[in-house]
Amino acid sequence: MKIAVIGGGLAGLTAAAYLSEQPTVTGVLFERSPQLGGRAFTYEKAGFTLNYGAHAVYGLDRHTISVMEKELQLSFGSRQVDKRKVMYEKHDQLSPAPLDFVNLMKTDILSPRQKMRFAAEITAIITNIHQLKHYPTLGHYLADSEADENVKELWEHLVCSNFFITPEDARKVPGHVISKYYHNLFLSQRPVNYILGSWAVITNQLKSKMEQSGRWELAMQEGVDGIRYEGGRYVLTTKLREESFDNIVFAMPVQQIIKLLNDTPWEPFMTPYANNKATEVMVYDVGLSQVVARPFSYISDMNNKLFITDVSATDHTLVPEGGQLLQGVAYLSDDFDTEQERKAYLDERTARMEALFDKHYPGWRDAIAVKRVSKKAMVQSVKNIAGNKLLPVRIENMPFYFCGDGCQGKGELAERAFSSARDAAAKLASAARAGLPELVGI
Ligand SMILES: Cc1cc2nc3c(=O)[nH]c(=O)nc-3n(C[C@H](O)[C@H](O)[C@H](O)COP(=O)(O)OP(=O)(O)OC[C@H]3O[C@@H](n4cnc5c(N)ncnc54)[C@H](O)[C@@H]3O)c2cc1C
């Protein structure tokens, strides 16, 4: 069986690495840009290692990357973010984020009675008896809940920070999604970790697996721009070639898949996914020539919905001797009538972000060695809120396979890319082993 994987991000590389273990499968991975990694692309600048998307892994011991570590014999180091230095700031008051029972007891954002209430909520999530899973959204649950406003705000803020979304969107996340996510996270012994050395440590190994198999080709700077069905096979076109395959794995953001399948016989299958909105944030990365302050590992501003991570406090491998790498992220609303309104909003978010840096990292402006600001970075191609529809790994009566962070799978963000890709590869591998012609051409 000859397979094409379109997209060389975390999802495409994962799918191809798994498939490269199948002796009867050959393949080509097409990547339109000059480098692999997609939104997890890593680059070096002035001695700093910068990621486009950050490399925090939530619930490492229960995460798909740990399954892949065993199955694909990956090797990587990781380090836990110091939970005692993860802070929430509310009305100028700093307090440990209630990530576990120890922090929960220490936090000042809840009264003793509210702490008991929140502890009971965590226990119910862990034991899987929380009513939240029966509610269409977090907002519906909170409206019904008799909890105090502070407890409701805490729920909302937790979801904002793990899903990278605004409070308005947090209220739209389905109850079953939240209860599953936090069931996993609260049970984890390793809630927030960094892969030491960035995502490149993973992507390099996935690439090596493909190359070592001798059955896979990497087609770099070859964006796929056309697809058709001909003679029982799928023909892909790029600016350099036309090649036919038995099956295709689409490993790109859902919006780009829809674009590629426009004006093909498969366009109608994509209609239910056409109105999905992506999760977008503003990212403010600064590499500093020296450590200007290290009051915490992570500070989340509850009033303004933005956070700063001292990435190098956990992953020291990313900075030159004595340097510091800070990443600011602001959740973004996507509801604007005019471009002017959107621009004013982004300017306001930037000013607030810089004010948060000024407050906790005095002197940061004078120590800047590297700076990268992106006012619109796509964290997840489909925001996991009611009204949006994640793309299944397979769509009934459609021949292709889909993976990426906009697809159905376990977890959110990069975990969704890994888990959907692993699933797509497993389905294709079992078809290849059974010798099934996985072709349902139109
Ligand atoms: C600011 C930010 C912070 C983040 N932080 C975290 C975090 O801490 N933890 C976490 O788990 N996740 C995080 N993420 C999310 C994570 O980076 C993404 O979920 C993940 O990288 C998505 O991988 P993917 O393979 O699904 O998609 P992509 O990375 O988008 O890969 C798709 C690839 O397909 C290629 N492509 C597209 N069209 C074509 C075509 N026609 N032909 C050939 N190639 C094509 C693209 O060039 C790209 O390389 C963050 C993201 C951002 C932006």
Structural commentary:
It contains 14 helices and 20 strands. The chain is of the alpha/beta class. It has three domains: 2-38 and 200-276 and 384-433, FAD/NAD(P)-binding domain (3-Layer(bba) Sandwich); 97-188, Guanine Nucleotide Dissociation Inhibitor, domain 1; 279-380. Helix 1 links the parallel strand 1 and strand 2 (26-31). Helix 1 (10-19) packs parallel to helix 9 and helix 1 runs parallel beside helix 14. The longest helix is centred in the last third of the chain and has 22 residues, at 339-360. Flavin-adenine dinucleotide is lined by residues 6-12, 30-33, 38-40, 53-54, 56, 223-224, 251-253, 256, 260, 281, 283, 377-380, 404-405, 413-415, 417. This is Amine oxidase. Pfam families: Amino_oxidase (PF01593). InterPro entries: Amino_oxidase (IPR002937), FAD/NAD-bd_sf (IPR036188), Zeta_carotene_desat/Oxidored (IPR050464).
